[in-house]
Amino acid sequence: MDSTTIFCLLFSSVLFLSLFKSLASGRRKLPLPPGSLGWPYIGETFELYSQNPNVFFASKVRKFGSIFKTHILGCRCVMISSPEAVKQVLVTRAHLFKPTFPASKERILGKQAFFFHQGEYHAKLRRLVLRAFMPESIKNIVSDIESVAVESLKSWEGQLINTFQEMQKYTFNVALFSIFGKDEVLHREDLKRCYYILEKGYNSMPINLPGTRFHKSMKARKELARILADILSIRRQTKHNQPDLLGSFMGDKEGLTDEQVADNIIGLIFAARDTTASVLTWIVKYLAENPSVLQAVTEEQEAIRRDNCGEDKVLTWADTKKMPVTSRVIQETLRVASILSFTFREAVEDVEFEGYLIPKGWKVLPLFRNIHHSPDHFSWPEKFDPSRFEVAPKPNTFLPFGNGTHSCPGNELAKLEILIFIHHMTTKYRWVKSHYRWSVVGPQNGIQYGPFALPHNGLPIRLSLKR
Ligand code: HEM
């Protein structure tokens, strides 16, 4: 190598290095999004939790715009509320933003639950889950879900009930059926007992010492895993190719370990139960408050019941496709109640985002509720008006089930179980107020967060049979 070549090589390396450095420092020079990080360590946590969290988010958006920084629960966060920016985080640049949960939640649900992951493992498990919950699969369990709905409503007759708690029982039983098929009745009580202890520790301090809630939860988790291992072993010995979620997991060619199956089943029950139960609770509230909407839904459902000769349990998949009015009530409830106000991601590297820097490790929170309640996307956003869904919402403005690689794989099942429940509730039961016989008892405007937004006290109601 002559000296000119060496010089040229050295010169180009220096040029490359300085170009790289200036690019990197240029990136660093990007500003952080506007906003305030509050007090050292506690940040703005008190501000967030001392009021309705939605007021906190809305006032920040008013002050700083649709992308702003804050500091809550020990994490530096960037919150975003424009449809385009949310699409970038969840869909187009999703590889730069991984799902993130506190370590204690991962320990309780199980570290191998697929929604904690990204990449190949997530994609494979998600495919197996989607196989069990796609319309082709769930259309075969309409009558089983219907039986669960009819039984639940019968047990409410004449009683003063806590709507949310009763809906939790319904959605839990539907989730078990979709996971274990007809085998679920054999294990229902054991699974229920352990799961109820487990969930009590979900929001507790993660101190794993005898006597603490967290410790009891971890013990219940172990017992759940043991019950699930027994169910797997029985099924391996007896039957194969069941069309439920367990069958889908067992059909995986490479084979999942018992631990992977257990973590994913526990995670799935967690994702399925309280979400759907709180949406159902809000629907009851909105129907109670909007008699003309209730009447329109009842008429639609009674027409289907008449076509089915007034039989008690005969709904088909095709019937559930003849419920446009009821479907719009579900959509509007998902929008107004926005039970998942936001979700969490974490930047996997420094990301340049709309002219700002999101540093590696910062949390990124797409604010679904702010989008659903923005007058730019929905006129009179606080008004409950299902007819607005006669026209499809603008792209990326209606995200009750998220978007992209981690969007909800259970959304079809959730909508199906809600439709079936509303069918039986409106055709067989009355409201006490005016000529109806469902009465909503107690204060009606309070909202509690636990963690999903819920009507006050779980919405106590009393139903009575139509005569
Ligand atoms: C109306 C009820 C429901 C609502 C509003 C809802 C909402 C959501 C949302 C917004 C996400 C995305 C979260 C994110 O991007 O971080 C999600 C994910 C998920 N949901 Fe649902 N969900 C509901 C019912 C269900 C049901 C019934 C199931 C199971 C049968 C289910 C299973 C899941 C799972 C497993 C994920 C994680 C998916 C992934 O990470 O790939 N959900 N849900």
What does this protein look like?
Heme binds at residue 408. This is (+)-abscisic acid 8'-hydroxylase. Its cofactor is heme. It comes from Rhododendron simsii (Sims's rhododendron). One of its GO terms (biological process) is response to water deprivation. The structure is a single chain. With 467 residues, the protein is α+β, with helices and mostly antiparallel strands. The chain has one domain (28-183, 240-463): Cytochrome p450 (Orthogonal Bundle). The protein has 18 helices and 13 strands. The strands form four sheets. A five-stranded mixed β-sheet has the order 1-2-8-5-3. Strand 1 and strand 2 (75-80) form a beta hairpin. Helix 9 (163-180) packs across helix 10. The chain starts with a helix and ends with a strand. The structure holds protoporphyrin IX containing FE. Residues 99, 115, 126, 129, 133, 268, 271-272, 275-276, 279, 339-340, 343, 400-402, 406-410, 413-414 line the site of protoporphyrin IX containing FE.
